[in-house]
Amino acid sequence: GGEGFDEEGVAGGDGEGGAWDVEDDDLELPADLDLGGAATGAGEEGYFVPPTKGTSQAQVWCNNSQLPVDHVLAGSFETAMRLLHDQVGVVQFEQYQRLFMQTYSRARTCYVGLPSLPPLFGFPHRNWKEAGGRSGVPAVGLKLNTL
């Protein structure tokens, strides 16, 4: 064996061991660390219950706006075409394909959180000051003076 190590490989071991044998009853935890069963997401049977999936920002944008551009930004081209047809009478959309794709490409931002993880997406809102996550509409990409 190595010098200064007993047969278990612990330096200066006295052979009694048990230094890490701490019973749960001996631990003194602060009261604010007691989370209880409901806060941990455990069901009554002791298994994990994941939270329900929320509404996507694209769906929120479609629900909150009747502007065709907001539906294009959400990626809902079908509803955008339906709105354009109902509001201004457009029936041929082939020439709008490039414009729809350019508009859709600016709908969200992408950034890296950590190097080996997939990118995270942000959804900029034009009414971010007064709206929360469920009542927002997409940010405007052009101003009138730009046109």
Helix-strand blueprint:
Elements lengths: L35 H4 L17 H8 L3 H6 L3 H12 L8 H9 L3 E3 L8 E3 L25
Antiparallel strand pairs: 1-2
Primary descriptors:
two-stranded antiparallel ribbon; 147 residues; single chain; mainly alpha; 2 strands
Q: Strand order, main sheet: write it out.
A: 1-2
Helical percent range? 25-40%
Terminal CA distance reads: 81 Å
Radius of gyration: 29 Å
**Quaternary structure annotation:** single chain
Query: Which strand-content bin applies to the residues?
Result: under 5%
Largest sheet: 2 strands, antiparallel
Shape: elongated
Poorly predicted runs = none
Discrete helix count: 5
Tell me how many strands there are.
2
> Mean pLDDT, rounded to whole units?
80
What class do helices, strands and sheet pairing give? mainly alpha
Order of helices and strands: HHHHHEE
